Amino acid sequence: MFGLPLGTVVVLAVIIALPGLAYGLYRVDRSRGDGSVTVLGYRAPSNE
Amino acid sequence: MSVGFSLTFGVYVVALLGIGIYFFLRTETTHLVDYMLAGRDVGTWPIAISEVASVASGWTFFAWVGVGYTTGLSGLWFSVSMLVIVLFLYRFVAPSFRRESEALDSQTIVDHLALVFRESRFGAWIRWVATLAIVVFMGSYISAQIIAVGEALDTGLGIDYAIAVGVGGVAVAVYTTLGGFNASVWTDFVQGLLVILAAITLPLAAIAEIGGWGAFIAEARAADPTLLGMTAGEHGVALALSIGSWLAFALGALGQPHGLMRFQAIRSERILSKASVIAMGFQALRLTVPLLIGIAGRVLYASAGDPESVAMTMMVDLFPNWFAGLLLAGITGAILSTSDSMMIVTSADLTQLYRTQIAPDTDEDTIVGLGRVIVAIMAGVGIGLAYWRPGTIFDIIEFAFVGLGATLGLPLAFHVLWDRTTGAGVFAAVLAGLISAVGNLYLSPDTFPILVWPITLAVFLLVCYATSSSPTTTGRPLSAE
Fold first, then answer.
1. Cα A23 to the center of its chain, rounded Å
2. Which of B73, B230, B479 sits opposite A45 (nearest CB)?
């Protein structure tokens, strides 16, 4: 594909997909409240 | 060197100095938290773009282009690994780190680890050894940036390398000394945007010059059949070592103090998720495109004397003078971005060491003044090392990047995620990371940096398990959500 070896194409596809994953997670976070990390992440409980 | 070329670049340097003077004239920089962390009030776009720009450094358009030129797309092992680690940092480490940092009033990662374990008898030792690690690795890292600035000005403007190193080093020292972290973030932001512009236009122009994508692929295969693959023509143990080296290198992203400082300065942990999207997009671009530029450089300049300078040569040859000047400004700017952030973080750690361990009664004005003096000294050290040139830009960056990741990133990640982390364990990890990075480089250079991580991790876990029964040695516990 595009003249590149299959392995290279797969890795490039993953590299392109990762920012998309970050965006998807952000949309989930935003829909759940104030935008804080709520999924696939970790947040120490607030002391406030 | 044309007038238009020099004029564009000159205007840019003056703008950088203007940013430094602007923030110097604002009274806020007389307070340490404002000088070092911009009052913890930096927004989403500046934090995300500057976080990448601060780490992007000389490697994007020098070291990484050199990798593309010599070994081709096998460098993508590093790219994909680092993207995963960046996402991990934003989502697993940064939220708790940001919150704890404000509660503890920590300025840097070293300051943070020392404050978390301040009740432990190892708290002070963590600060001493971690600050030593900062000086060793940051001094090296700053020199790599100044070498890159020197090469950019040498190739682009035709300024002699020796003079260019001095000019670049002094420029960054002046605006960082004056403006502190605020100047650093905003110059990083502007430079980050210019890097994106360069990363998009330069490969397009280079591939067009070769004759389009099809011709680029054919010419690259003809130059070296292994350039487009993921193995660089290696097999068996050699391939495993190569991939291991890329992964070990990428793990360094866990502990870059100048990048982590952005998390401490961000306005709220609520904007980290959004910032991660911008940072990931920028990282994906800047970790991929320079490899293609390097391969295009291999086609266009088959006998380049210095593969790490190919992007600069290409830029001068392929673009109109005014645009080449703008891109040169952006690329030089990316390098300066890293340098200024490194000087700030080194200054912060040394001033905190002075204030907490040597002279606790020192007033804030004196500390801020001392911080500025240290920035100037670190610039001098970096310029000196740049004249010496102990290795290629890539070699120096790899050493510093992995060293910082192992000594600081590993303990921070474990502290956030593992409640058995102890002060003794963190101290042991910092010491083991420092010694193993230097030892691996000088005693077993063929395996560098693969050995650094298992050694540091093993020492850390052993000491944590041996000492976690004592409640006074454990940092503030953090539980899962």
1. 6
2. B479
Residue ranges in B59-122 assigned as alpha helix (H): 64-71, 76-88, 94-104, 109-116
**pLDDT per position as a tens digit, B212-271:** 999 999 999 999 999 999 998 899 999 999 999 999 999 999 999 988 988 888 888 888
* Chain A positions in Cβ-Cβ contact with residue B213 (cut-off 8 Å): 2-3
Task: Decide if B83 and A5 are in contact by the 8 Å CB cutoff.
Answer: no
pTM beyond 0.95: no
Under an 8 A CB cutoff, do A5 and B230 touch?
A: yes
Which residues of chain A are within 8 Å of residue B283 when distances are taken between CB atoms? 19
Query: Who's near B439: CB < 8 A, 6+ residues apart?
Result: none
**Separation CA B57–CA B290 (nearest Å):** 13
Q: How many CB atoms lie within 10 A of CB B218?
A: 15
Crossing angle of helices B257-265 and B109-116, in 10° steps, is 70
Going from the C-alpha of A9 to that of each of A3, B229, B261, the distances in angstroms are: 9, 9, 35
Per-residue pLDDT reduced to its tens digit, B453-478: 999 999 999 999 999 875 544 444 33
